[in-house]
Design goal:
The complex is a heterodimer of chains A (463) and B (619).
Chain A: E1 4-5, E2 10-12, E3 15-19, E4 29-34, E5 39-48, E6 51-56, E7 68-72, E8 78-81, E9 89-90, E10 113-116, E11 133-135, H1 139-144, E12 147-148, E13 155-157, H2 163-173, E14 175-176, E15 182-191, H3 193-206, E16 212-218, H4 223-242, E17 247-253, H5 255-268, H6 282-290, E18 294-295, E19 302-310, H7 319-327, E20 330-333, H8 336-340, E21 353-354, H9 357-360, H10 370-394, H11 401-418, H12 428-439, H13 452-458
Chain B: E1 15-23, E2 26-30, E3 40-44, E4 49-56, E5 61-65, E6 77-84, E7 86-89, E8 97-98, H1 105-111, E9 133-137, E10 144-145, E11 150-155, E12 161-165, E13 172-177, E14 181-183, E15 190-194, E16 197-201, E17 205-208, E18 217-218, H2 230-235, E19 243-247, H3 254-264, E20 269-275, H4 279-291, E21 305-310, H5 317-334, E22 339-345, H6 347-360, H7 374-382, E23 386-389, E24 401-410, H8 420-426, E25 431-432, H9 437-441, E26 454-455, H10 458-467, H11 479-503, H12 510-527, H13 541-563, H14 568-572, H15 576-581, H16 583-586, H17 592-618
Parallel strand pairs in B: 8-21, 19-24, 19-25, 20-21, 20-22, 22-24
Antiparallel strand pairs in B: 1-2, 1-6, 2-5, 3-4, 3-6, 4-5, 7-17, 9-11, 9-14, 10-13, 11-12, 13-15, 15-16, 18-23, 23-24, 25-26
Helix pairs in contact in B: 5-6, 11-12, 11-13, 12-13, 13-17
The chains are: A alpha/beta (463), B alpha+beta (619).
Chain lengths: 463, 619
């Protein structure tokens, strides 16, 4: 018993206005059939006694006030989910597609369940504090910014930097120390086809493709779909994590495209902009995605998020990275100067942080000296960079013994700890041993952040 | 069932209207315009969703709904609850976690079928009706009581004795009072008669969140709130009853500071408002507080805390309420004579929720889209702090005091302190702990920038510290003077930094090099503090004074040595310096003897340096 409208009152960008003639639900999904044969989807975002405002998810070009019929579905936006999805690629609306041709395939998937893509907030009381370490095999992450199951840890990058390579490396190498398998959900938001193909190739090489579900919104797809696709991916993740006891790692790339779509829509709705034209609710909207992460008491599965965003103008204070950093539990920042030096992964170590690692690392999970070592590496590296600045003033000869030691440490840290091949998979022991090798350029008594017992045990420099 | 009405329920007349428009979390209601007051609560009958009236017009009213409005339809029935959003106050608040409008999140998780998620229209009372409390009466029949008089007590937790007080605005003669025994909060506890009017009371009081709870008079703060953070307790102290803002960009450690305060500051009751922040942070607080035990009582710290959680993905419209909900609960415990600290993390998210609602209302925006009434909202929050002479009977002529301290963190976009929320907040707080991204990058935590931060409280608390000073004849200065000297060293360092950039440190005169050396020592051994180290996380009063005096002692002695021609390298190489650097982690709070040993060693090393040098001179 769905209601059908045959006349549109007004069309402005992605918004369609109708004269209200029936009993409509707020948030209801509508189907718009136009005479060119296309079917578009939209949602009721505002309604009063005379007018219904509908936000259309696809392109509105080609619609006129007379050429379309609008069907009210009496339902919210739902996606079909099943384990039939493993190893396959879908578009923003959950339809299977071919990644090389961008065509929608006519093979429907089986449906185990239908779920509202907006999800529900997790009760803060029901959350369990995440504490299981994910080993990525990348020294700088495992050693300094350990990734935890149930964490949301974004990568702040810029165009032209190897964030895709890093993401692919993490996806293919990531494992929990208890060896349980991951489900990986890959969500491309407004990415170009080449990137999508690159990721698929990497996933295939890993031999792990059966554990990956991909959702792709291409750069030339309508912007409304960009706002849908992460929600579709996260709804799928929630089902497998909290109903099927799986550990799900969600990669969202690129959140900058998402935020730009949000800005475009906001401007079409004539809202009052906040910073740089982004709407005031950018924070709330981001949170509604990022917060769909974590661990729930009494459930085995978890959701971990690794959003990737490119900082416009390489500016970390731009609203997109800034807002993200306020919500996520840390950030991994890539830096072009380090990249130019040929170091991979090109981390800006001092701007990066993982907030959840403090309680998760240590004797039982990684190694007893892990916390002290990571704190010492960061503080010594910061001191080493200060010494480098000093060289430009006093010259290398003007440095004292301690400063020269720091300089050597800095070099060793960058070249052998930070730097590694994108196919190299280091375990946590190797990572920490490399850290000690670098630290041993510094005299023992300068290692203030490490407990004496660990210095005695692991220090490998000359006394 | 209306959970917000406890008494006289049957007498209620139902006042209803219907929805005529929906726009996000705002709904327009017709049929209520002549019958509701501004800020009254309304409830949608079908989904049991609550809202608050925020505008009244001649033919409709506008309400802000506290949950998402999906699936609502036009013409659905809306009932007026005929009262503003109020807190339910009584035994059972401590150790609980509530959402922004005081729905109990633990009970929601345990008693509903929501499986860890928050569904709409939860209808569970804020405080448990089932739990029995042991009530001890303190009054007798025929006694006259006024508002604030304590009728009896309940040991709510090991820490806190809950005082059952006569509600604000009520007085009379006791005609009945319950005997000592077990009662639930809705059982009748006493009756008061005034004239011919007799009223029955249980343990629950209600209070609208936007209204200050009254007190007799405001008093002058004199006692510091000891935080255990050296940088704060020495340089930027705060008083019980004071106000502080903690601004900082992301990654500067606001949340760690708030959590450390919640754990270690010497308030009796903590109200922690997680406002628009991460869900995992609330989980962290809950976990840490149930695990950490108070050294004095051996009980879990959870027993002195009330948590209000409106995480960033929970409805924005309840976020504005969450801050005032927290303060109202804080005031209630203050009125029992306790020292209460309300920690709000973060007030920026709260301000943003105002902006969002204001945007939906299409109000004329002021700076950066924030409504023009932002300053008055911020001031109405911070002005509820203070040390006050509370209502109730004075103890043998001695006045009773309670205090409410407010510590609000601010999250300025891009760490820019000139943005509206930070700059407005600055006008209404007395202390400002500016967190600095550069310090955080160099792993200097707590990242409190000593040049940008300030506190107007040192003069208030210097007498308090003077009484607790430890006397070391070698360095006879008190807390206030220590503070001045440390400040002086740090500001000299700042001036010298520019010169160092030009000529390099080695080329400065010896005494200036020494100032830089001591300033580094102050930063590394005193200001830097590891919040996660079991010893370093809290520094007691004596340890703090000892630590700072050791540094100043070295500074004074070193200066004299330099003036007498000793080499700066020899002073820098003193073995004791390494020990001073490690005091934070190696000396426990009650081990004052260890500090005295270090002092003795320091003096011995200096003496032997003098001697050694003397020998060389003779040759």
């Amino acid at each position: 018993m769905s209601v059908i409208y045959r006349k549109i009152k007004k069309i402005i960008g992605p918004l369609v206005f109708l004269d209200n003639k029936h009993d409509v639900q707020y948030g209801e999904i509508v189907k718009i059939h136009s005479n060119d044969g296309k079917v578009r989807t939209g949602q009721v975002i505002k309604m009063d006694e005379s007018i219904i405002t509908i936000q259309v998810f696809e392109e509105t070009a080609g619609l006129s006030s007379e050429n379309s019929t609008i069907t009210f579905t009496e339902d919210s936006f739902k996606i079909k989910i099943s384990s039939d999805m493993f190893g396959r690629v879908f578009n923003s609306l959950g339809k299977p597609i071919d990644i090389n041709t961008k065509q929608v395939l006519d093979t429907e998937i089986l449906t185990e369940i239908e779920r509202d893509i907006n999800g529900l907030p997790i009760n803060p009381f029901a959350r369990e504090y995440p504490s299981e370490v994910i080993q990525t095999g990348v020294s700088v992450i495992d050693g300094l910014f350990t990734l935890i199951r149930g964490q949301k840890l974004p990568i702040f990058s810029s165009q032209g930097m190897p964030h895709n390579l890093l993401a692919a490396q993490i996806v293919t190498q990531a494992k929990v120390l208890t060896e349980e398998p991951f489900l990986i959900i890959f969500c491309g938001i407004g990415i170009i086809q080449d990137e999508a193909i690159f990721f698929m190739k990497k996933f295939q090489e890993s031999g792990n493709i059966q554990n990956i579900i991909s959702f792709i919104n291409f750069a030339d797809d309508p912007i409304m779909e960009r706002l849908i696709v992460p929600r579709v991916a996260l709804t799928t993740a929630e089902y497998f994590a909290f109903e099927k006891d799986m550990h799900v790692l969600v990669i969202l790339i690129d959140m900058t495209n998402y935020a730009e779509a949000l800005r475009e829509l906001s401007s079409a709705k004539k809202e009052i902009p906040s910073r740089k034209g982004y709407p005031g609710y950018l924070y709330t909207d981001f949170a509604s995605l990022y917060e769909r992460t974590g661990k729930i008491k009494g459930k085995k599965g978890t959701i971990t998020q690794l959003p990737i965003l490119t900082m416009p103008g390489e500016d970390i204070s731009h609203p997109i990275p800034d807002t993200t950093g306020y919500i996520t539990e840390g950030q991994l920042v890539l830096n072009r100067n380090i990249d130019k030096k040929g170091i991979y992964p090109p981390f800006e170590v001092l701007a990066s942080i993982s907030r959840l690692m403090k309680d998760a690392i240590g004797e039982k999970t990684t190694r007893e000296d892990h916390a002290d070592v990571s704190s010492q590496l960061l503080s010594s590296y910061s001191a080493a960079l200060e010494v480098r600045d000093l060289i430009s003033i006093v010259g290398e000869d003007g440095l004292n013994f301690n400063q020269k030691a720091l300089l050597k440490f800095g070099e060793a840290f960058e070249m052998s700890f930070l730097n590694q091949s994108h196919t190299e998979n280091r375990d946590i022991e190797t990572t920490l041993d490399l850290a000690w090798k670098a630290l041993s350029h510094i005299p023992r008594h300068q290692l203030l952040r490490i407990r004496q017992e660990f210095i005695d045990k692991y220090y490998v420099g000359e006394v | 069932m209306n959970i917000y009405k406890i008494m006289n329920e049957s007498e209620e007349k139902i006042i209803s209207g219907y929805i005529s428009s929906i726009n996000g979390s705002l709904i327009k209601i017709k049929g209520l315009e002549d019958q509701v007051r501004l800020n009254d609560l309304v409830k949608e009958s079908n989904h049991k969703i609550l809202g608050e009236v925020i505008q009244i017009y001649s033919d409709h009213v506008i309400a802000k709904v506290f949950e998402n409005t999906f699936n609502l339809k036009l013409n659905e029935e809306i009932i007026s609850l005929q009262e503003p959003l109020s807190m339910e106050l009584g035994p059972g608040l401590l150790g609980q976690i509530f959402d922004g409008i005081q729905r109990p999140l633990e009970a929601t998780f345990l008693e509903s079928d929501s499986r860890g998620f928050l569904k709409r229209g939860v209808d569970i009372p804020s405080l448990s009706r089932k739990k029995k409390w042991i009530f001890k009466p303190l009054r007798k029949v025929n006694e006259r009581v006024n508002m604030g008089y304590v009728i009896g007590t309940i040991q709510e937790t090991q820490f806190i004795e809950h005082k059952i007080m006569v509600p604000i605005g009520v007085s009379g003669k006791i005609t009945y009072i319950a005997e000592e025994g077990e009662y639930s909060i809705i059982d009748e506890i006493y009756r008061l008669k005034r004239g011919n009017d007799e009223k029955t009371f249980n343990m629950i009081q209600k209070w609208p969140i936007t209204k200050n709870r009254p007190y007799k008079e405001r008093s002058y703060p004199q006692e510091p709130l000891i935080t255990g953070m050296r940088a704060i307790d020495l340089l930027f102290p705060i008083v019980k009853g004071g106000t502080v803002a903690v601004p900082g960009g992301f990654g500067t450690g606001k949340t760690v500071i708030q959590q450390s305060l919640a754990k270690w500051c010497n308030a009796d009751v903590i109200v922690f408002v997680g406002c628009g922040e991460r869900g995992n942070e609330i989980a962290d607080v809950l976990k840490q507080f149930s695990e950490i035990t108070d050294p004095k009582t051996g009980r879990s710290l959870l027993e002195r805390i009330v948590i209000i959680a409106n995480t960033s993905n929970m409805p924005v419209s309840a976020r504005e309420a969450s801050i005032f909900s927290g303060v109202t609960i804080g005031e209630y415990y203050r009125d029992m004579g306790y020292d209460v600290a309300v920690l709000a993390d973060s007030t920026s998210r709260w301000a943003e929720s105002l902006r969002e609602i204001s945007g939906l209302l299409e109000e004329m925006p002021a700076e950066e889209g924030y409504p023009a009434y932002l300053p008055s909202k911020i001031s109405s929050f911070y002005e509820r702090a203070g040390v006050v002479n509370i209502y109730g009977e004075d103890d043998a002529g001695k006045k009773n005091y309670g205090s409410l301290t407010i510590i609000g963190s601010v999250s300025p976009p891009s760490g820019d302190f000139s943005e509206p929320v930070t700059s407005t907040t600055k006008r209404f707080v007395q202390a400002f702990w500016a967190l600095d991204a550069n310090l955080a990058y160099s792993k200097h935590y707590p990242a409190i920038n000593w040049l940008k931060s300030y506190s107007k409280y040192p003069e208030f608390v210097s007498d308090w510290w003077y009484e607790r000073d430890i006397y070391w004849p070698e360095i006879d200065i008190d807390w206030y003077e220590c503070r001045n000297q440390i400040n002086n060293i740090l500001s000299q360092e700042n001036e010298l930094k520019n010169v160092v950039q030009l000529v390099g440190e080695e080329n400065l005169p010896k005494n200036q090099q020494f100032i830089l050396f001591i300033a580094r020592l102050v930063r590394n051994s005193f200001l830097i503090q590891n919040a996660f180290d079991l010893t370093d996380c809290f520094t007691g009063i004596k340890k703090l004074i000892g630590q700072v005096k050791l540094i100043l002692l070295l500074f004074n002695e070193g200066k004299q040595l330099l003036n007498r021609g000793y080499l700066i390298e020899d002073i820098k190489d003193l073995k004791i310096i390494n020990e001073i650097l490690r005091i934070g982690r190696s000396v426990s709070n009650d081990d004052f003897k260890a500090l005295e040993r270090i002092k003795k060693k320091l003096i011995n090393e200096i003496e032997s340096l003098k001697l050694l040098h003397g020998v060389f001179k003779k040759k």
